[in-house]
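Exercise 3.2. Students should predict the tertiary structure of the chain below and write it as structure tokens, then compare their answer with the key that follows.

Predict this chain's 3D structure.
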Amino acid sequence: MATAEALESRGAFPDIQRVSHPYALASLGRAAYTLFATPEHLKLHQVVEEMCLDGPFQPLHPPIEQTVQHIHEDILPQVELREPLRTDKARLTHLGGILIQFGDYIPKFHDSVSVPYESVIGLHQAITDRAKEIGPLDYADQLDVALKNTDGDMIESLWQLFITSRFYARWLDAKIIDNLPNYSQEQKVALMLEWRGAIAACKEPQPGRAQDPNGDTYYTWTHTLAKAAFSLTPERESRVTRGAVRVFERGTDIMHKVVHTFNKQGVDSNHNVAAAYGNAIGQAIVEAKQ
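Answer key:
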């Protein structure tokens, strides 16, 4: 008979420790609160985008329909996809908090989320290396790299794309990443710029205005992961999990129309197009696995 530890290690989201449901609800509530009352923080993404206001500009992603078709016809058939692993309600609630707020702001994440730095820098290196060969990667190519890194584990691939892209977009998850080197600010900015140069963008370049491909990329993978996680990994589907899918579908719209009315963005960047990509890619993945 398998031990509890063995069963736990095979569950989805091994970087998120098992927590009680009250603990998860408290972390989710705190994450929601800090959307409106964001702690003071170093805004390295402002530094990065100010450096790039007049270029270099990143090429645009293919249209959504073309991206989804590419994933369906070219990316997924190349990999033997594993069956999505299931997880409990508390961990999914905890994931919800992680999806909506950076790890550095939420103390309850610091003891319950442990992302190996090796996986974050590993995906950064894999994507930047691939970009040196073929140019900036679109979403289908990014997914292709992640799937190969995880031997076809779709949920783990999406988790790594989400947490890696968010980290190199904003550098605000350092407290949940294990063994992170003590980088100088110049080294952090260099890594963020390297990531920026390796990925495609959602917005047309406009001199004097942030193109913010880093921010758009993490928004896309946030929506994709939310759709896949709350659709494919619950131990039991419920009104709560179905509702979570609907809420996250509209999450960016809610942020722009509600949250940013009270709490202005550090970089003026609308992520609605990125969210549309994420919702469409997530739906395509869910349909492929059901």
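Discussion points: Confidence is low (pLDDT under 50) at residues 1-9, 258-263. The two ends are 29 Å apart (CA to CA).
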